[in-house]
Design brief:
There is one protein chain. The chain is an alpha+beta fold. It contains 18 helices and 22 strands. It has helices spanning 153-162, 212-221, 241-245, 253-267, 287-290, 301-307, 363-368, 382-386, 389-394, 418-426, 430-436, 466-475, 498-514, 525-531, 557-561, 566-571, 577-588, 592-609; strands at residues 2-3, 14-20, 29-31, 38-40, 134-139, 167-169, 176-178, 186-187, 193-197, 268-272, 275-279, 324-330, 334-339, 351-356, 374-376, 395-408, 441-443, 485-490, 518-523, 541-547, 612-624, 628-634.
Length: 636
């Protein structure tokens, strides 16, 4: 996912919280004096100071979150109920909880980079206590957890707590591995039919068996034109999906029903309670990764219909097959998840309370007040933490799956000349960028972050070289003196906002290393939105960022730089026929080694053509109490 404003929402990697030995919160029924609502909480635990106050936000699947950090859905109100369908038997394995993040817009052909997540290699059963404690962290306001609708980092993370998708992602390779599916899908010789078989004995937390029909229903909802799913394009290659999606919500009911029937008969074919065949319109080896995302989960049609508009915030109808059960959803206050003993891989935790806060800058004070076990830091708090010996001992930094870059309008002069673009790229000293602008980042000269499939440490086309940069500028058809450029910014940003600081740093670098003056043009939001619709008015240079939805090169290179994706025209107005051909071949290549090699060639060609200037890879910083054990990065 991508963002123009680079506002930092949770970024990054998958975090695994196992053997969490922290204290827990008391449960009781008490009036919510601020809203008049009654909140039901779980009882008979020890209360922690400050637990009633909200905290900032820890994502289980954190990555960089750009524009959509909070879902605004005024129709979703408060819904809190106690659950009674859970048991508390011993837990035998660690659950890999992953944090996830994303950029502002939904992408045309992808989806998260996973938010989907977790590990293949789960640890063997241990003799440690079955109940290891409760965890408290922070989150942002969420107005619903519908897997087909959510598009914020925070909400998708919570979907994974309650549901397990068909596939997950290996913590080492990032490749898809079986989740609710028994094994990786059987793919037909033409690459168009994916047959998925579910594991034996899967049940929801209420003991009802999980069926292939439930996965088919959940996937079909993204194609429903009435739903307006942000990530509908991600599954639009399923046979019948694009046709149904193209209909208007106001079309005759008979026409809409026919569209749904076509999808379920041609694209999502339920062969039995445990077998599902998915038919796609063109070869797409990355498609199995799409089936590991937050919407490839078993949502029951009966729950959606019974719960109506609020089904995804009501614990009575938000019932899944994942490691946790939603026990409480109190808008503006907290969400409480308790261990699902019937999950395929039950959680180590007894419960996980996520306190809702409006601002991550509150994390540090809440952590000091011991109302949090884990808190994601605002970079502005880093110096204060590092100056405090006790806090410094709890500091953890984890690389994430986000990249920061400058996107260039390659259509307008002088950026229509590759020599000018590459000169701009090679005149930027990324070491100073991470020291002065993004202290939680690592310098980057390529797009895909380390640890993800497709990362290319050998891609050095944009490496800092001011002497070569000046030579490139002189060789351009504009020369060293006839270059007029401006850096576009959204007006009203705070002085220390990352886009503004990035612009100031880049302008100073270009003046120092190239001897050119680059102006900064700030536009009001309404004017900004209109300006981005045309190549002639789109800003020449803009600070941007991207966080993966799933760990595959398609989600990075093809999603951003293929001229055949609608997103590409928005991102950079970039077109390169040779790159297009490489990406087309890679997107359809079945042999993994050959596919990887094609993506490396495409990635290096893109870097050398410089439609974007790579700046940095993201890193997250957390405060983690010593009572929380085995925190590590998992698969995207």
């Amino acid at each position: 996912m991508s963002s123009d404003d680079l506002s930092a929402r949770p970024v990054a990697a998958t975090c695994v919280f196992a053997r969490c030995l922290s204290r827990a919160s008391l449960a009781e029924t008490s009036p919510n004096t601020s809203t008049g609502a009654t909140t039901t909480k779980k009882a008979s635990r020890t209360s922690r100071p400050g637990v009633a106050s909200a905290s900032a936000s820890l994502d289980t699947q954190g990555r960089l979150a750009f524009g959509r950090s909070v879902e605004r859905n005024a129709g979703r109100g408060r819904m809190v109920r106690a659950r009674t369908d859970r048991a508390a038997p011993p837990v035998t394995r660690m659950w890999d909880v992953k944090r996830r993040g994303r950029p502002a817009w939904s992408i045309a052909t992808v989806a998260l980079a996973a938010l989907a997540a977790c590990t293949t290699a789960l640890p063997a059963p241990t003799s440690s206590p079955a109940y290891l404690g409760d965890l408290a962290s922070e989150t942002f306001e969420i107005f619903g957890l519908d897997p087909a609708v959510v598009d914020s980092v925070v909400a998708t993370e919570e979907v994974f707590m309650v549901y397990e998708p068909l596939f997950r992602f290996d913590t080492v390779s990032g490749r898809p591995v079986p989740g609710a599916a028994r094994e990786l899908p059987t793919v037909s010789a033409d690459g168009l039919r994916y047959r998925v078989t579910l594991r034996d004995g899967l049940t929801y937390s209420d003991r009802v068996p999980v069926r292939a029909q439930d996965f088919a229903y959940s996937l079909s909802r993204l194609c429903d034109p009435k739903l307006g799913a942000s990530y509908a394009a991600t599954v639009s290659l399923i046979a019948g999906c694009a046709e149904w999606l193209a209909m208007a919500p106001t079309d005759p009911l008979e026409m809409l029903a026919a569209g749904r029937r076509r999808l379920l008969s041609e694209g999502l074919r339920v062969l039995s309670d445990r077998e599902l065949e998915i038919v796609i319109r063109q070869r797409a080896p990355y498609f199995v990764s799409v089936l590991g995302l937050w919407f490839a989960v078993p949502v029951r049609q009966t729950d959606v219909e019974r719960g109506g508009e609020r089904w995804s915030t009501d614990p009575a109808t938000y019932v899944g097959n994942g490691p946790f059960v939603l026990e409480e959803f109190t808008a503006g206050a907290r969400m409480v998840f308790v261990r699902n003993a019937r999950a395929r891989v039950p959680a180590k935790l007894g419960s996980w309370t996520k306190h809702i806060v409006p601002d991550r800058r509150q994390t540090l004070e809440r952590y000091r007040a011991r109302s949090l076990d884990i808190g994601k830091l605002n970079p502005a708090n880093l110096a204060e933490v590092e100056a405090d010996a006790a806090l410094r001992a709890d500091l953890r930094t984890i690389p994430n799956d986000c990249s920061y870059y400058l996107k260039l309008n390659t259509v307008v002069p002088p950026l229509d000349d590759v020599n000018v673009r590459l000169a701009l790229a090679k005149s930027l000293d990324r070491e100073t960028y991470v020291r002065t602008v993004r202290p939680l980042a690592q310098p980057a000269t390529s797009l895909i972050p380390p640890g993800l499939p497709g990362h290319d440490a050998g891609d050095t086309a944009q490496q800092f070289d001011p002497i070569e940069a000046r030579a490139l500028l002189a060789r351009s058809r504009y020369g060293s003196t006839d270059v007029t450029l401006s850096f576009g910014l959204l007006a009203g940003a705070a002085p220390n906002a990352p886009p503004k600081r990035t612009a100031q740093w880049a302008v100073a670098q270009w003046k120092k290393n190239l001897g050119i003056e680059v102006g900064v043009l700030e536009l009001p939001r309404a004017q900004w939105v209109v300006s981005q619709r045309s190549a002639k008015t789109t800003s020449q240079i803009v600070a941007a960022g991207w966080c993966g939805d799933y760990p595959d090169q398609h989600n990075w290179l093809s999603a951003l730089f293929s001229s055949t994706t609608t997103l590409a025209s928005v991102v950079s107005l970039y077109r390169n026929d040779a790159v297009d051909e490489l990406l087309r071949s890679a997107d359809q290549e079945v042999d993994q080694s050959a596919r990887d090699a094609l993506y490396v060639r495409a990635g290096r060609a893109i870097s050398a053509d410089a439609p974007a200037i790579w700046l940095a890879f993201g890193v997250d910083a957390f405060l983690v109490r010593s009572s929380v054990r085995d925190l590590h990065r998992g698969g995207l």
